[in-house]
Structure prediction request, 1320 residues.
Amino acid sequence: MKLEARLLNGESHSIQLQSKREGVEILLDDRRFSVRFLKLNGSRCLVYSDGKVIDALVHHEGPQYTVLLNGRAYYIELTDRRLTRPLPDDSKGTHQPVKAQMPGRVVRLLKSQGEPVERNAAVLVIEAMKMQNEIRSPRQGFVSQIAVREGESVAAGQLLFEIRVEPQP
Amino acid sequence: MKLEARLLNGESHSIQLQSKREGVEILLDDRRFSVRFLKLNGSRCLVYSDGKVIDALVHHEGPQYTVLLNGRAYYIELTDRRLTRPLPDDSKGTHQPVKAQMPGRVVRLLKSQGEPVERNAAVLVIEAMKMQNEIRSPRQGFVSQIAVREGESVAAGQLLFEIRVEPQP
Amino acid sequence: MFDKILVANRGEIAVRVLRSCREMGICGVAIYSDVDCAGLHVRKADEAYPIGAAPARESYLCADRIIDVARRCGAQAIHPGYGFLAENAEFADQCLREGITFIGPPSGAMRLLGEKIPARQIARDAAVPTIPGSQGAVADLPTARSVASQIGYPVMLKASAGGGGKGLRLIQSEVELQQSWEITQAEAAASFKDPTVFLEKCLRRPRHIEIQVIADRYGKVIYFPERECSLQRRHQKIVEESPSPIADAVLRRKMGEAAVRLATVAGYQNAGTVEFLVDEQHNFYFLEMNTRLQVEHPVTEMVTGLDLVRLQLLAAAGEKLPIDQKDIQLRGHAVECRVYAEDAESGFAPSPGRIDALEEPAGPGVRVDSGVYQGAEIPVYYDPIISKVIVWDSHREQALARMSRALSEYRIAGIRTSIPFLQSLMKDRDVMAGDLHTVLVAEILAREQREHDDSWQHALIAASLMYHHRGRVPIQSPLNRWRLSVWEDER
Amino acid sequence: MFDKILVANRGEIAVRVLRSCREMGICGVAIYSDVDCAGLHVRKADEAYPIGAAPARESYLCADRIIDVARRCGAQAIHPGYGFLAENAEFADQCLREGITFIGPPSGAMRLLGEKIPARQIARDAAVPTIPGSQGAVADLPTARSVASQIGYPVMLKASAGGGGKGLRLIQSEVELQQSWEITQAEAAASFKDPTVFLEKCLRRPRHIEIQVIADRYGKVIYFPERECSLQRRHQKIVEESPSPIADAVLRRKMGEAAVRLATVAGYQNAGTVEFLVDEQHNFYFLEMNTRLQVEHPVTEMVTGLDLVRLQLLAAAGEKLPIDQKDIQLRGHAVECRVYAEDAESGFAPSPGRIDALEEPAGPGVRVDSGVYQGAEIPVYYDPIISKVIVWDSHREQALARMSRALSEYRIAGIRTSIPFLQSLMKDRDVMAGDLHTVLVAEILAREQREHDDSWQHALIAASLMYHHRGRVPIQSPLNRWRLSVWEDER
Prediction:
């Protein structure tokens, strides 16, 4: 099985898994691991790799994996090469909607419609759970739509804004 | 719904449950309770009864319920009056098998075949987990069969002995 | 002593108070909003009553309803915890009128200390140093300008009715003062219904060090060893410890005695905390007094062996404090980390949701005060605190190592938490050296770099194996299946 | 200090040792039998290696294999925990030969103290009182008869090589002595490969009080405040506390100094415990010395603030003990309850199986040293201990109340446990009064009556409601469903 893994920092790694009699052979980029694997209940698992014990809690929603390891959290997007659906094609301009993760109130708009934005640039500020949170652009592009006003209350899942991603040259 | 509950000490109680708009009406013997009920995950539940909160963990195997409450354990056998299959009829003689709860070794036989036994009388001793445990007769009757020998290793679920329950007059 | 106490709060602090109630043989009553019907505080209570809808103003802030529940269930006292109604003098008065004991200070002292300008006056009356600044309210911009140039920029422009990190603004220059003057007044009027503002000098990289006190009705006031709470994000404490790495017996006693003087002058009773800023020369200045039990009270409990909630209940019941100042002995070092439902990896955005899996740290020297359990929900309506991890060890260095160990054991799935950031704090060079100040967290966040170890590889391996084995059932009994299904691996 | 330590044990004690390793920056290595592949000690370790099949003699007792793993993974030291190889002098010698540090006493001291008759001789050499009895081995029945009539019945007939409650027999009269003489010798020969027996007077209702000591390589021996472990079932401790309700500073020092003398005479190093019986006049008599870390060590840690495992590692690494006798200060009161997978409601039968649901106590003053997690299996092959709950409070009465509170929070489903019995012990009048002795538990079991409260009704209600609502899914999110599905109730 061949997988592609994307980390939060944008890094991409390839992983190959092969079942053997004694466990699983893993080729991570060009590093080889020979592991044994134990799936426990409650999304816990144990990986035994050359004496090392990896005690992980693995949670996923679709291809988005969260791995808890020694008090750190790792966010990983896995793509199965065999099953790959065509990814949204970056060569045509696309609109990426950004929705509210939780109910709250829009306290400030930081960008206006049509403005260019970097990846991770703050677009607006929402107050929820007594805290102000900057909502950032997931991509580099242009703000193609702002769907809320300052002071407006928003529900979870409500569209906040859209980013138009420019076709790549 | 009408239930019959039998406690470990042999006491029997009747319970009637009726769903109302505001919760559940319970008639326990002749005491009336008006409760609200919340089923949580992991066999936990909360019962709100007149301000009192009952925080219980309820585990069951078939009709055998174990209720954990404030660090105490309660063992209850529930019978649904509507679904009652005819219980083993005490008016005819029946044979009740007693099986090993866990693997171990038979260290001593205390009764022999044909011997009369009281309810709870020790019939044999099994050593398991570094401890000796008396295995007792669940009923008054006669030892109709002893299926193991002293020194024999037994597996969980293996038949140890049978008690013949005499027809009641 | 009371037979029955209502805890007018939720989450970890309600659980904390209910635990002391149970240990003292007092019936503990919880209240809950709709979303909290299965909250841990409900499960740990002897009785529990619904109090309204999820938003706090329809439940935990409804003084009338809470008092009504207390009256109907026969509670003789109300413990407000922190937040919600804890520093609401109106509520304390209302309890008094209804013959219910409010477990906290008298409303008069609460009112005096609840506003910054009167509180600063009390500090001066008690010969407690205050931060250089205006004598009282600053009426107009020209006065503000003259005070600011006298004490020197940067200055803090503060709302008198503000507190807890709200209603304050850092002013670097006269131009900024001019720009901020009206807006600060307007915000104070809008947020606190009082436009009064005043000026204080802004200390450079100060430490936040505070003194817990407790007072009975008979004039006895006792202070505890200081807590250092300099690790703050957005003016919110996230890590606290006791003792402070810089305090010696002399400074401890000077600050403690100052706090006792202030509490005495204010006619204070019950538990409270006098907060100070401490400059690089170890001069300390009165900041404000919190008239309630604080989030970080456990570090004090760990280094003194005393139960502050128990002492609160005794004092509120009119008993004499069973301890004297000489009984307060500092032992070892305690550190607390606040664990929030916030995504440490992306700007600390709140992360409400359901806790799908939970394993809490335990073992020697570790205390967890938690408000959740596996399967519980973190609602969006309240402070997103999940729990507090508190550790004790004989020395600070060991306590930090123990905290790292404890955090490494903590597993929370389903929501994101601040644990990863707390982990990196415990290993930060300035934190380990004890070189703390209130902007250190911001500096660390600015310089933070990803650790370069192999953990990300392990994470990738675990994730891909879970994907590879999707659909396979977890082992139920290693007794039988280890040899069968573990070493083997199906296609 | 070591870089890597192998922990040759399992369950809670392996987890306990691994936690100290992690805090000290030492790589902790676990070993596991087949059934323990997913044990908590494996999950808490940095490395883990399989060691054989489930039965202890094929895994945790296999000295060769364990040493082989240690050598191959580069562990410089082995911590044996308690049980298994902890008091095996052969194993200690084997480690020495392989250049691996055995974290425990020298094998010579272990051998001397491991047999009762030589140990009694050492005690006499160290001027430590021993229980009246035969000077050494009793060779034949006539000698036994004469010794017994001299010291007076009842007497204990003990195997010299026995220990830990095994190989001893209570003799009430000369007739019984005659009946038991041969069988006891034969049993000793069969169980311990040594038929040697001796006689001791049987004390009436003695207390079991013990002194923890630790010694470095340089002759420094330190004693800790006593632990009282009189609550025993079948000669197994189930509840321990420190200090003892009857000890004052004088008795504490006398016992402590006796223990230090004994350890010094025996050439002892590392941690060990000198056990005494104490009669109603508070005379104490040497019983035996346990040459290892004990199950109940946490109560000592709680009242002194010291980490005994850390001290063990320092002593084993050849460092000087970083503390002196004057640094050992007793503070407050600690109690430990051992939680076993035993059915308290029906004769304490073992109850192995899978832990389907688990919630552990927490909060102020509560420490849980556990060997399990939700979903873990209690195998039948080993000691059925699940965890230890240890509490600390400033006074004994409060500590017992805190233990009751902690036990009331403990939830374990899937297996049966000793928690209900521990609960009733905490409320027993003799236990609360501190009137303890080694047969008290048997007396309590004989007189125990079901508490008459309404709890059984609550249990019935909960069970019948769960039956009534079978098939209904648990609430996932109270946010939405409370009003919809909670107050309502479908048919």
Notes: Chain D touches chain B through 59 residues (CB under 8 Å).
